[in-house]
Design goal:
The chain is mainly α. It has seven helices and two strands.
């Protein structure tokens, strides 16, 4: 009995009401799995709306059907579609469009989804079509640059910051 180190006993494992014994799966809602092919099909229909000039309908459709159950590739495809839509909308049309989306049924959830995509796009940094390369230099230091000069990343970030500002209002 003297050889037992009482300080190493995990008391939380013995308490049934402890957070350590809480089933974490009950916190996240169950979502149906979505294949990447389904996400790409949905992206094509959204792009069709965008090509037809219905920017608001394309944005509304993209925000109503986020692929929560998709894999990372599917989520990346949907993110690129949302960013493409946001870049195609003029800055003067942002506030009225956000007001109409907010006033529609389920508008608060749609704006929450929009903010999630804005933050995800900001975290992504460079557009998904660019690849970061590291070029070794004769000095021993490496120079990091994006393929194609990296001019497109600043414009996308500017658009996302404008949408964030309007969405926050």
């Amino acid at each position: 009995m003297a050889n037992i180190n009482w300080r190493t006993i995990n008391i939380d494992a013995l308490d049934p009401d402890s957070p350590a014994n809480f089933d974490l799966s009950s916190l996240a809602p169950a979502v149906a799995p979505v294949s990447t092919a389904d996400v790409q099909t949905n992206a094509q229909s959204i792009r069709q709306l965008l090509r037809g000039g219905d920017n608001e309908g394309a944005l509304q459709s993209a925000l109503e059907n986020p692929p929560y159950g998709a894999d990372d590739k599917g989520k990346e495809v949907h993110l690129s579609v949302v960013i493409e839509i946001l870049q195609s909308i003029r800055q003067s049309d942002m506030s009225p469009m956000l007001s109409r989306i907010y006033g529609a049924p389920g508008g608060t959830e749609a704006l929450d989804v929009l903010m999630k995509y804005i933050y995800k796009g900001m975290a992504q940094g460079a557009p998904s079509g660019t690849k970061r390369d590291i070029t070794p230099q004769p000095t021993g230091f490496s120079q990091i640059h994006t393929r194609g000069g990296g001019e497109g990343g600043g414009q996308a970030m500017s658009v996302l910051l404008s949408w964030h500002e309007k969405g926050y209002e």
